[in-house]
């Protein structure tokens, strides 16, 4: 191959303990994970509500396949848009109290697609939280908008940036729940700044939807943010809702604009209608089964209470908890030790997090039980304790 940078770049990744590889799993999402015939308790998946193996969602998928076939067959503007897609869009708009909704096949393409569709000129200013997901960063910086990043949740800096901006159209971009730290966005203050500076607000709630809010509507509902025409909400289906895809909500005019001008939407095969049918079932379960959210909160409190004081964790307000290990090497070592004891966790390393802030990312789910949590905390205390002593 002529791309001579590939070999040295891979070698460098290895040398820096940053090399990434996939594990072929026999079973991945859900409480139990199976790898090479061995079973592990899974603390790595984003199946927060424990819906991954739910029989109603599986039956809905099968029913959808019977009715519509395996895939959508084309992009939405050709013949890929079905009654199932429409029903799902209406359900989401109603659930999130938004005027309109549009489906995307992945959250990544929703974020990058919307930001490239809105960022058409240097008259647009994007203001992103420093910890924004890669899809938001790519969408913003690959667009024609002037993009700036403010320190995580730092409203003072955001205010200064908005005050000094000469852009006609301003969009603040933040997340509901930050996926690597598990803390929530300071949405109330950020929304006040949006209103003060006549800016629009884009909230990626991939990790908040399902888990936060009275009926799982996400962080905006949990923080009582009043809905306005300046607000765009993005949710994903591949985490708490246990299917696949994403939705963007906003004003009717904005959604109409995306249908006409968002290249990721127009030039991509629509999600399988069966996936939309399954997601409808999943959202209805999420709305009604409050016990799942209550259980996650209880398990999270239990987990934190079992950890030794010496264990450094992220400032989490969700069921995502980062166990800070410092170096990449430590994170990989602790991951392996915990795996040997039957717990599957993922070491998170740069560039996903800052250098020196590597961690084990623990995600708790409604499918876990007290025993799982206590045993995990005991093992973390032992493994991390030893690792810190040996430093
Ligand atoms: C905050 C955030 N936004 C967007 C995405 C992308 O969503 P999807 O996995 O549906 O592409 C992710 C997934 O990791 C995410 O964590």
TrEMBL record:
Name its co-factor(s).
Answer: pyridoxal 5'-phosphate
This protein's pathway reads: Cofactor biosynthesis; biotin biosynthesis
What GO annotations for molecular function exist for this entry? Answer: 8-amino-7-oxononanoate synthase activity
Q: How does it assemble?
A: Homodimer.
> What family does the entry list?
Belongs to the class-II pyridoxal-phosphate-dependent aminotransferase family. BioF subfamily.
Coiled-coil regions listed in the entry: none
Report if keyword Transit peptide is assigned.
no
Kindly provide the name given to this protein in its UniProt entry. Answer: 8-amino-7-oxononanoate synthase
EC number in record = 2.3.1.47
**Ranges for the Aminotransferase class I/classII large domain?**
39-379
Keywords (alphabetical) are: Acyltransferase, Biotin biosynthesis, Pyridoxal phosphate, Transferase
Q: Which organism is it from?
A: Thalassotalea fonticola
Q: List the catalytic activities from the record.
A: 6-carboxyhexanoyl-[ACP] + L-alanine + H(+) = (8S)-8-amino-7-oxononanoate + holo-[ACP] + CO2
Q: What is one Pfam family matched by this protein?
A: Aminotran_1_2
| InterPro entries per UniProt | Aminotrans_II_pyridoxalP_BS, Aminotransferase_I/II_large, AON_synthase_class-II, PyrdxlP-dep_Trfase, PyrdxlP-dep_Trfase_major, PyrdxlP-dep_Trfase_small
Family matches, as Gene3D superfamilies = Aspartate Aminotransferase, domain 1, Type I PLP-dependent aspartate aminotransferase-like (Major domain)
- Taxonomic classification, please? Bacteria, Pseudomonadati, Pseudomonadota, Gammaproteobacteria, Alteromonadales
């Amino acid at each position: 191959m002529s791309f001579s940078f590939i070999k040295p770049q891979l070698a460098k990744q290895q040398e820096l303990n940053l090399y990434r590889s996939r594990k072929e799993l026999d079973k991945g999402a859900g409480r139990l994970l199976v790898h090479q015939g061995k079973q592990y308790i899974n603390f790595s998946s984003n199946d927060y509500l424990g819906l991954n193996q739910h029989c109603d969602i599986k039956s809905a998928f099968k029913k959808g396949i019977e009715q519509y076939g395996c895939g959508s067959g084309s992009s939405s503007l050709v013949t890929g848009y079905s009654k199932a897609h429409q029903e799902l869009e209406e359900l989401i708009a109603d659930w999130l109290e938004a005027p309109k909704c549009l489906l995307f096949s992945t959250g990544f393409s929703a974020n990058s697609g919307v930001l490239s569709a809105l960022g058409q000129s240097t008259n647009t200013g994007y203001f992103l939280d420093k910890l924004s997901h890669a899809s938001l960063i790519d969408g913003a910086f690959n667009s024609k908008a002037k993009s700036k990043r403010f320190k995580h949740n730092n409203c003072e800096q955001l205010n200064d940036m908005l005050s000094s901006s000469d852009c006609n159209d301003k969009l603040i971009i933040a997340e509901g729940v930050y996926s690597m730290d598990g803390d929530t966005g300071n949405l109330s203050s950020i929304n006040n700044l949006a209103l003060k500076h006549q800016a629009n607000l884009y909230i990626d709630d991939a990790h908040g939807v399902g888990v936060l809010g009275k009926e799982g509507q996400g962080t905006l509902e949990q923080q009582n943010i009043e809905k306005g025409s300046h607000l765009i909400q993005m949710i994903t289906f591949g985490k708490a809702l246990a299917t696949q895809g994403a939705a963007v909500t906003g004003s009717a005019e904005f959604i109409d604009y995306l249908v006409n001008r968002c290249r990721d939407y127009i030039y991509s095969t629509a999600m399988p209608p069966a996936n939309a049918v399954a997601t409808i079932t999943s959202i209805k379960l999420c709305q009604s089964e409050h016990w799942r959210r209550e259980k996650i909160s209880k398990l999270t409190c239990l987990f934190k209470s079992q950890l030794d004081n010496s264990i450094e964790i992220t400032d989490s307000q969700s069921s995502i908890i980062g166990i800070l290990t410092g170096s990449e090497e430590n994170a990989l070592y602790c991951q392996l030790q915990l795996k040997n004891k039957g717990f599957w966790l993922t070491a998170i390393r740069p560039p996903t997090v800052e250098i020196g802030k590597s961690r084990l990312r623990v995600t708790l789910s409604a499918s876990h039980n007290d025993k799982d949590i206590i045993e995990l905390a005991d093992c973390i205390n032992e493994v991390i304790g030893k690792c810190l002593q040996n430093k």
